[in-house]
Design brief:
- It is built from 5 helices and 4 strands.
- With 153 residues, it is α+β, with helices and mostly antiparallel strands.
- It folds into 2 domains: 36 residues; 108 residues, Band 7 domain (Tetrahydropterin Synthase, Chain A, 2-Layer Sandwich).
- Strands 1, 2, 3 and 4 form a 4-stranded antiparallel β-sheet that branches.
């Protein structure tokens, strides 16, 4: 009877020790996963903006754009300003200037360039890598002739 009791106690101690050892080993072997899981990302949707597209000295139409961007939540807490303002400003400037992206003759490869350029420019202006990714939620071109109340000249 005494041997059976000692074997039971010994089995319990070995089981508890193995479980504790496994937890410690798992914690030490995955430091990258724990720090990656601690990084929190927040998603923001901008307001829609209307940007005039000018060609041949006149307004040809308007580009309506709305973006979704992700930011590092910890860096956002340290910011004094809302990064949405900078994303909208950079979007307006990029679309209006139209140097990298020709909105009157768009190609499929221009959209990833636009999104990447917006994120890079916002991070450069803020001086911190806060914007992780910029996604295009809406991008529509409305020719001037299709606008309500536009003169048909």
């Amino acid at each position: 009877m005494m041997k059976l009791l000692l074997v039971g106690i010994w089995a319990s101690i070995v089981s508890l020790g193995a479980a504790f050892g496994m937890l410690e080993w798992k914690k030490l072997s995955d430091p990258a996963k724990t720090s990656e899981a601690e990084t929190k990302i927040e998603e923001f949707r901008t307001k829609a903006i209307n940007v005039p597209i000018i060609g041949a000295g006149t307004i040809q139409g308007y580009m309506v754009a709305q973006f979704v961007f992700t930011v590092d939540a910890d860096a956002l807490k340290k910011m004094q300003v809302n990064p949405e303002i900078y994303v909208l400003d950079e979007a307006f400037k990029t679309i209006y200037a139209g140097e990298q992206v020709n909105f009157q003759n768009m190609k499929k490869q221009d959209l990833p360039l636009l999104a990447k350029k917006l994120g890079e420019n916002v991070n450069k202006r803020l001086g911190i890598e806060i914007v992780q990714d910029v996604l295009i939620d809406q991008l529509s071109y409305i020719p001037k002739k299709d606008l309500r109340g536009a003169s048909r000249s």
